Amino acid sequence: MTATTEPILEVDGLVKHYPLTQGILFKKQIGAVKAVDGVDFTLYKGETLGIVGESGCGKSTVAKMLCHLERPTAGVIRFKGEDITRLSGRALKAVRRNIQMVFQDPYTSLNPRMTVGDIVGEPYEIHPEVAPKGDRRRRVQELLDVVGLNPEYISRYPHQFSGGQRQRIGIARGLALRPEVIVADEPVSALDVSVQAQVINLLDRLQSEFDLSYVFIAHDLSIVRHISDRVGVMYLGRIVETGRDAEIYDHPTHPYTQALLSAVPVPDPEARDHRERIILTGDVPSPTDIPSGCRFRTRCWKAQERCVREVPALAVPDVFRAVSGPAAHDSACHFAEERQVVPAEGEHGNGPG
Ligand SMILES: Nc1ncnc2c1ncn2[C@@H]1O[C@H](COP(=O)(O)OP(=O)(O)OP(=O)(O)O)[C@@H](O)[C@H]1O
Ligand SMILES: [Mg+2]
């Protein structure tokens, strides 16, 4: 399936603050870890949205909230237009079926005492309506086949598999309930480079085979490049730039994205010579103590007085806004390199004003 302009997941002002407490007996809240601090994005049906950012910027916390493994402190998550943020009971169960997660570490996310058959078929225990008991073994074998594993391995244990095969088991499990959205949290980060491409190719194939939409989380821009239609760059609990994959790679407008990209190796020597290597100074500030105004300003070479006072919105200044929807290229910087995005064929821009 190819990307559409029909939103499947919409995230609006998503926040997760973990209370920071002191004392053991009488816990006193002394602050908050602002793990996710106002995230907005839309996932369109059939597309892959890559989310990248350094360790600790809140990627996994976003993933967990999308899959209802964490409750948001604030904000709204919509699935096909319906607010699913605070569902409970049956309605929650129905939605959860549709949004499944694939985890980062295939070595620790699979229960070592369960057989592959039990692991992949476990979701049917929670959703027996999807597969009657007598039909589960056949379904699990089919899933193993779909992800490129021998269906006869159904009785084996996770330790009998390689890292790449284990991640295939995790993916088969994620597919068991036939979800519409898969949130993959660094699904290849723990794998050898040679195996990463195989798993990415598998995810790519499954996307068209099962009409899936992906949120694909990674540390590294070079990994998401292969699979993403669009990319969102996260910094300290927020998305600071988002746009089509080629826009982000070829014309990054946010200084943080420019810095991240300058660290990605470029195979073409000529392109390499033309690119400046940006070395960021200073550490990432603590999520318990986020800078005022623009959160990136303490490490930014463009920062000015305005950046201390004013939080930049994730948008293109109105006069430059050419398009909305999947083709929009937004940047949360007061001094973003303003660039008019050319709409792709078949897409209509809002036009300025
Ligand atoms: N349960 C929790 N309680 C308190 N703080 C937490 C909790 N979970 C995450 N955090 C903090 O929230 C911030 C974001 O964590 P998160 O795991 O979402 O980051 P990440 O981008 O996935 O990082 P990584 O790339 O290392 O996986 C970190 O500072 C982390 O320490
Ligand atoms: Mg993580």
From TrEMBL:
Species for this entry: Streptomyces alanosinicus
ABC transporter domain residues: 9-261
Family (UniProt): Belongs to the ABC transporter superfamily.
InterPro entries noted in UniProt: AAA+_ATPase, ABC_transp_ATP-bind, ABC_transporter-like_ATP-bd, ABC_transporter-like_CS, Oligopep_ABC_C, P-loop_NTPase
Pfam families per record: ABC_tran (PF00005), oligo_HPY (PF08352)
Protein's name according to its UniProt entry: ABC transporter ATP-binding protein
An individual GO BP term: peptide transport
Coiled-coil parts of chain: none
PANTHER family the record matches: D,D-DIPEPTIDE TRANSPORT ATP-BINDING PROTEIN DDPF-RELATED (PTHR43776:SF7), TRANSPORT ATP-BINDING PROTEIN (PTHR43776)
Keyword Glycoprotein set for record: no
